[in-house]
Amino acid sequence: MKCFTLLFFVVFSTGVLSNQPELGKRTLEQIQKTFESKKVPIFTSYKELLSLKPGVSAKVTFLIELNIDGNVKACEATYENPDIEPVTNKVCKIIKKMNFGAGEAITFPYVINFYPS
C-alpha cells in the first residue's frame, strides 16, 4: 500500500487555488479530506487513459458549485490538452457524488495535475 500511496502523490497532485479566501465556512482541510477520500477512483480514471494514451498529461481546473447542504450542484472542467477529456468527464461524475459538509452555497476552483510517472 505504501508504494501505491507514494506513486499516487508523484503522479497526481491536487489543491484548492490558494487565492480562494472563503470556502463557505468550510476549511481547506475539509475540502482536501473530501478529495482524499476519492483519490482512488480519480487516479484509476487517469490510469485507464494512460493505458490507451501513454504519456498524456494535463493541468485541470474543476469549478465546483456547492449547495448549502454540501452536495455538489455543478462541476465544470477546464484544461488545455483535449486528450484528457475522458478523465475530466469521469472525475466530474465522481465530484458530483461528493459531499463537502454543510456551509454556505459557494463556487470554488480545485486543480488536479495529471502527470505520468
Question: Could you explain how this protein is built, in words?
Answer:
With 117 residues, the chain is of the alpha+beta class. It has one domain. The protein has 4 helices and 4 strands. It has helices spanning 2-11, 28-36, 39-52, 85-96; strands at residues 12-16, 58-66, 72-78, 106-114. The protein has a 4-stranded antiparallel beta sheet. Strand 2 and strand 3 (72-78) form a beta hairpin. Helix 3 runs antiparallel to helix 4. The protein is elongated. The two termini are 17 Å apart.
Topology:
Layout: H1 2-11, E1 12-16, H2 28-36, H3 39-52, E2 58-66, E3 72-78, H4 85-96, E4 106-114
Antiparallel strand pairs: 1-4, 2-3, 2-4
Tell me how many strands there are: 4
Largest β-sheet summary: 4 strands, antiparallel
Task: Specify the structural class.
Answer: alpha+beta
Domain count: the total is 1
Low-confidence stretches: 1-14, 17-21
Please report the distance between the alpha carbons of the first and last residues: 17 Å
Strand ordering within the main sheet: 1-4-2-3
Rg calc = 14 Å
Order of helices and strands: HEHHEEHE
Determine the fraction of residues in helical runs and give it as a percent range.
Answer: 25-40%
Proportion of strand residues: 25-35%
Give the helix tally. Answer: 4
